[in-house]
Structures are given as C-alpha cells and as structure tokens.
Amino acid sequence: MTPDAIETPGNVPEEAPGGEAAKRKTSILVLDDEPIVCKRLKPFFQKAGYEVEAFNQPFEALARIEARRFDVVITDLKMEGLDGLSFLGKVKALHPDTDVILITGFATMETARQSFRKGVFDCVAKPFKLAELLDGVRRIEKERGLVP
Amino acid sequence: MEPGGVRFLFRTFKRILGLNTLALERMAQMDRALGGEYVFDKSFLESSVRDICRLTHLVAYHLNGMADEAHVALYDASLAVKDALEDILAGGMGSLSGRRVLPFSEIGWELEPLVGLANVGLAVLGRKMGLPAPDGFAVTVTGMRELVQSQEAEEARAEVLHAVAELFARLGGSRRLEISFVSAGPEGAGKILAEAGAETAEDALRAIARFAKEHAAAGPLAACVRPRLTGVVQGTLQTLAHDPSLPPAMLAVAEPPGAVRDSASAGDAQGRDALADRYWLSRTAPHIPLRTRLAEKQLAAPLPGGAPLDLSRGRMLRGSAWLLPEQAALLARLGLAAERALDSPCLLSWALTAEGDFLLTGLEPAETAYPDWAEDMCDVESGCPGEEDLLLRGGQIACSGVGAGAVALLDDDTLPDSVPLGSVGVARAATPALSRIVPRLGALLTEVGTAASHLATVARENRVPAVFGLKGAVGLASGTMVTVDAEQAAVYRGVAEGLLRQAAMQRAREGAEPEFLVLRRLLRHIRPLNLVDPAADNFHPEECRTCHDIIHFAHERAVELLVSIDPTRRGGLGAPRRLREDSPFELRIVDVGGGLAEGDDRPESAHQAGGGNQAGDVALADITSLPLRAFLEGLLLREVRREAPARLALGDILSGMGRTGQALSAPAGGAGLNLALAGSDYANITLRLGYHFSVVDAVVSDKPEQTFVYFRFAGGFASDDRRARRAGLILRVLERLGFRASRKGDLVVGKRKMLETAEALETLRLLGALSAYTRQLDVELASDADVERFASGFLEAAGLTSLVGSGLTGQSGSGEEEEGGV
Lengths: 148, 822
Fold this sequence. Notes:
Number of domains of chain A: 1
Mean pLDDT of chain B: 78
CATH class of chain A: Alpha Beta
Number of helices of chain A: 5
Oligomer: heterodimer
Shape of chain A: globular
Low-confidence stretches of chain B: 260-272, 369-377, 604-614, 645-672, 802-822
Structural class of chain B: alpha+beta
Helix content of chain B: 25-40%
Strand content of chain A: 15-25%
Radius of gyration of chain B: 32 Å
Helix content of chain A: 25-40%
CATH superfamily of chain A: Response regulator
Number of helices of chain B: 19
Largest interface: A-B, 19 and 20 residues
Strand order of the largest sheet of chain B: 13-20-19-15-16-17-18-14
Number of strands of chain A: 6
Number of strands of chain B: 28
CATH architecture of chain A: 3-Layer(aba) Sandwich
Strand content of chain B: 15-25%
Mean pLDDT of chain A: 78
Distance between the termini of chain A: 34 Å
C-alpha cells in the first residue's frame, strides 16, 4: 500500500526552532494487514489533526520506519510475514523514543506482558473503539510533551 | 437436582436469562460495529458468529430441559441459522447455489451473492415488506455461468425459457419484460451493469445468453427478469443525495414515460433530460421539498393528478411539476423503507400509475461522491445544536445515529398506524410490544431499558437511533420537534440539520467496505425479530428464522413455565419454613437459592427472637429474597389491614358452598397452603387462604429487561356479582399501578415488565398490601359505591391518594372480560 499522506522530511526534529512544538502535527504510522483497519484509522486520525501514514504490508512499513521517525506507531500483533512484536523491536531499536500501541484480535495476558517488557506503550484488543485509541495517542502526546 | 422440580426449573430459567443477556450483548456489539462504533476485522466476525451460535444453541437446550423436550424444533432452527452464517463467512452462495433460476418467491436476503441486489431487493421489498414491487425471477450466478458452458448450456437455456413461461402464467399472460444485468457474488456491489427489454421468452433468453457470453470474464453476474411496469410518470429516487447547501436530502427525478433516463447524479446538469423534474426532499418526515428544479412544459401537457396547465380553467392551478408534493412525500417514505431494508442508501426506479400508486421497478446501490472528513465540520453555523438547545442528556445508546421528528408518546397499547411516520417515539419502558412501531419512527427514547434489550436490537435492525434509560424522556411534550443524537445520548430542541447531515454521510461512507457487507449479511440472520407476540399463531419454534427469534421464543416460554410452577412439586427442596410474623396469612417459605439467610448470616435479632419459637421458623429479617421481602413488607402493613369481620349474607354462604371445590382446586397436598418459593432475586408466592387464590411471580434484577412482576387473582366466597366487583376493583388498582391487566369473570391477570429495581420492589410492596386489604372483601362489595369506597380506602392507606378518582370504580375498561392467561 502506498501511503497517500503528505510526505514530511525524514527525522523531524523533536522541537522546531523557537520552541514551537505545538505547531507540528504529531506523526503516526499505522500497520495492520487487515485493510479495513487502516481505512478506518487513517481518516479518523487525520480528522483529529494528526499526520498519518498507513500500511498493510509489514516490510513496507519497516522501510518507512528506516527512512524516518514517527512519534507514534500503531501496529497489529498478528500479521503474515512479520509479527507485531518483531516490528515493535525494530522500531525501538531505530527510534527508542517512538511510542508503540499494539492492537490485536488475540489479546492474552501473556502477549500483553511480553509486549510491555519490550517497551510497548499500550495494548488495545479488537474490536476497539476509535476513541480508545485516540486516548492512548493523547496520553503519549502528554507524556512526551508534544502538546502544550 | 430433579428435572422438572422447582429448583431445577428455577436454576435453568436463570441460565436462560443469563445466556439471553450474553447473546443480546454480543448482537449489540455486532450491531454497534456495523454502526461504525468499533474497529473490527474478520476474526471479530468469526468469533462473534461462533459465540452467538453457541449461546443460541444453549438457550434452546435449556428451554427443552425446562419444557421436557417440548420444543425440539428449536434445535433445527438453531442449526439452520448456524449453517447460513457459516456459509456467509466462507464466502459461499448459500444452500441454493446449484439453482440456475429462482423465482422471487424463493429469494431471501441470504441469496444476495447468488442473485445480486436487484433481485433480492425487489423480492424482499415486494413479498416480505409489502412494498409495490413486481413479481419476477433471477437467473443466478450459476445460471449465467452455465449458459456459456457447452455441457450445461442446453439445460440452462431450457430453465430460463421455463421460468419465463411460469412468470407469464403467474401474471395471467405474456408481458413485455425488463431485464437488468447485475454484479453479484460474495463481494458484488449489486451495481446494474446493463438493461434490456424483451417481448417474448425467446427474446429474453437471447438477451441473457448474449450478455452472459460477452461478459463471461467480468466476475459473477446475475440477471433480474420482471415485467416492464409503466405509468404516467416514471423516474428514480436516490435515498441519500449530498448537497453541502442542503440538510440531508433525497433526490427524486421524474419524467414522462419514454424520456431518456439520465444518471440521476446530484448536480449533474450535463446529462439531464429536458423534460425531467428534480426534487430534493427532506429525509425527515414529512419530507418537504427542500429544493425543486422543474423542467419547462407545454401548457397543454397532461399532468398526473390534476388538470392540464390551461389558464382558462380557473385561478387555482395544479402547478407544472410531474409530482404533487404529497406524491413526492409518499415516494420518499417508500425510499426510506427500502433503504432500511437494504441497510444502505439506494437508487430506486419507480413508475407512477394513473391511479396515483407508485410501483418499484428497479433497485441498485446509490453512488455518491462524498467530501473528505475534514469537511464534516459540525458547529452552530453548520446547523449543529449548542448547549442552549440541549433538552436531555443521559441513558444508554441502544442504536447509534441521529434522528429528528415530532415527539409521539407511546405505550404497549399504541397502534402503529396512529403514530405519524418519522416521529420521535417516547415510552416509559423499552418493551418488546413496541417492536411493531419502531419501523415508523425517526428515533426512540425510553426511560427504562438497556442496550441489551430485545427492543434495542429491533431499533438497530431498523436503524432507528435510540437512547434507553433516559430519565425525563416522558416529560417531553407530545408534538415537540426534537433531534435525538444517539451518538452522544442527547436530545436537542428543534431539527439539528448539521447533526443529521454528518450522521448520514458517515454511515454511507463506511457501509460499502467488504467487512461491513459481510457483517450486514450476517446480521440479517441474527437480529431480526419476527416472533413478537407470544399469543400469535406463528409463535412456534418452526417459525424461528434468526438467533433473535430463538432466544426471544425461549425467554417467553421460560417465563411461562416459571409462572406456572406447581409449588407442590418441590421434591428435594426440604421442608418449608414458617413465617414467624403477625401476618394475615399463615405463610411457609421454601428457599430455592439465596432466598433466606442461613446460619451465621441470620440477623442477630432473629436468633434471639427465634428462641421461643418453633424450630425452623423465619422472621422477615431472615428473608434475603428481594421480591419476597418487598411483598411481605406490604402484606404485614397494619395500616391497610381491615380487622373487622366480614358481614356475610346468607346468599353469600350458599353460593360460596357451591364453589368450594372449584376455589380449592389446587393440586393434591396444596389446598389451603400459602407457600412462597424464594430465590435471591425471585419469588413465587401462592396464597390460597379462604376461598380466593392468588399467585405473585416476580424476578427483580438489576437488568430492567429481566425484571417482571406477574399477579393472578381468582375465586372468592360471595355471589357472582360481588366477586366480579372485587375482581374489577383489583383490575382497576393494578392498572393504576402500571400493570397490563385483564379480567375474565373473577380471574384477574396483571403483568408488569421492564422495571427498575426500586420500582419493582415498590410494586411488590403494594401487591402485598393489596392482598391483605382485599382478603374476604368480596362479601362487603354490595354495590358499585362500595367498590369506590374500598378502592379509595386502599389507595389512601397505601399513600396513593392522587390516584383516587381516576376511574377506579368503573366496571368497564380496556382490560375487562379479555382473555386472561400469563
């Protein structure tokens, strides 16, 4: 899937000159091999004022992660080719300060514990409400000082 | 535990209630996912179907356990639904996938992949919903494929010719045929790809076979064959047409017969035929035209429903539109009914007859370009309400969405036809009896009820925005225009066009995704409630078509079984315990689970007070059964007890002697025994004191839809007219307490359902007080004036004086002399 979001320069600085962090949109990468999830999340977060890129293929998302940093990554846990935990590991290795929210249809305590050890910010079980995910992203923004 | 014993029945009943709740909650989650509330994927669909099938089967199993396997056909119904659901998940074409042609009479929603939307839409709208759609038949995906395969082609061709001959026979002769070729298959959107006409069966076969051959590689196709219907005006109706400058609208295009059809797209000026009128109609009843664009016409042009445009005919002219405003409104109502049935906006083709009747001639999904999310702004300027317009907020979202209309107050006796289309229905409780009215509503509010109730499922099935458990709803004045925002559980003053527009756009945009299509198809086998009335002829397991039918059937039958419990079949329950209080009745109590405090749980006062009493006696303080305790609190009220002995006339004694056997026709061993079965949230209280017989059966749950109070009263000692007066008095009091009550002779039956806990307990207290008060009252009811006096006396003693004088003493009423039965 080719992202049709507005392209932004790679490795956006944490804070723009002059301390105007609030003027920069928080960037989100969404990865889920179920197209409907990307179709729902992308317009929702765009409407809420975020910069969003969405991918159905893990290797495409991985290539994008290698090219630039995102503030937030939202990824499915179970996918063909590369599972969410491996993707989480690669994101954290490249960008330790990127926060990751895991979405999964097979949420169990064990996978949740495992993912928290790997530094996941939050887990959300499918089916979920868009507002739940938005809450998670807003908490990340608050903790990271991305919003005033 | 003995099957058929009271404890077994009670526990099984509770299992059914629990399973019903789980099934309804799962259905609600699927419904809400379809409404866009959840993000879901295929595994959600699979797990939902798995869960609902399991729960439905268990409900059937437990009901048969209670009913001694009297409803085994429920298993077949459950399996049939399961097969249909699994076929949809597997991307199958359904059980009739081998058929090449199918008459409309055999087509239901489950066959949509096999026959395409045009066929299934016309078949279902016409046959099941009674809309004016034609008879016809489908050449299925299988038929279209085999028409171009050498081995089966001959047989397929013969079947098509035979189907045309049969259609002509049903129509009473040959007709010119209209054929639509439609995209089908599990992921077919139902778009009409081409249309053709045919005069004979051979013509029709040639056209179908040619199209099948030329488009063999274009994916699954089907053909919709029906008689060509013509009228004095024809056209299309797009049920959702976006125009940023208008509230949510429908677009009707009308033209004379023979005019060239155009694309019917909103704002498409290029392809417009010179004779076509356009009407943008409000989606909210009464569907007034929001904008019209009328074609120029000849002065002498014949117009339906009025005189030609001849100025010499007088000052009052019909106007030059092809459709009169009332015809346009009727067309809008047909369009909304079709949209609800399809669960998505659609494009209808129609013809208007010289008699003023509309005929549906075709159907396909609507195609509209929608603006991006960013344009979906909702503020005061764009027609969204502000806080100053807020009338009510709260309750549970039973069906998301936004609806507007005039408030119509409803109760279980409201006739559907008396409710104006598009009204915002407001009722005290979300009872299943309102199901028939739901399709007519623009929105629905109730003060009692939850999102897991049967009525909530019906609201979602009909896409009627609904908020249940909204305090203050019945205080809305009838006729007031309001907007219900079920997304936010809020009610606003007036029609909030911005909210309506935003909700309509969002729904149309999301509904076309493949997962939504599958979910919609699944829900057609899950949520429709066809069996509404337990007293109706079709209330049988064989008639259950959906999961909802099955669990509702089981619920109703389980309640009936519980209410008809024979307390003497209490094998294994242990000895009854005597109530040690100053009761007007000697009462014994059997604990069926959590009804009595045991051992260390017994209050200290009971231990002490019990010292000098019979072993096993219980005091009021020992009773932990919520409904029994409330009933006894009323029964033991000294204020309502009449201590004076009844004055018996000789005639009363003589007539009472003749009825002794009837009044005491209790099962062996039960005569004269006042017995209560007590569970923590359940009570069945049978009183046989003297010559009357009354039963109270109640479940008091924190879920209003599971709470009910039933009351039956019969018998007495006095003459027929005096017993009838007492029955009449009880009937009136029950009605004033909010019961649906009926009387036949001296048998009074009252039911209350859908109650909050506090309300149910208060009702039981009053029933207890009524039972004490009316003891032997019949012999004192010498005249109708006595009825008034005693009714007033009871209501005053019970603190219900405001109800006195509101028709309590009349002997005629809606419930009088109706068939009783619980």
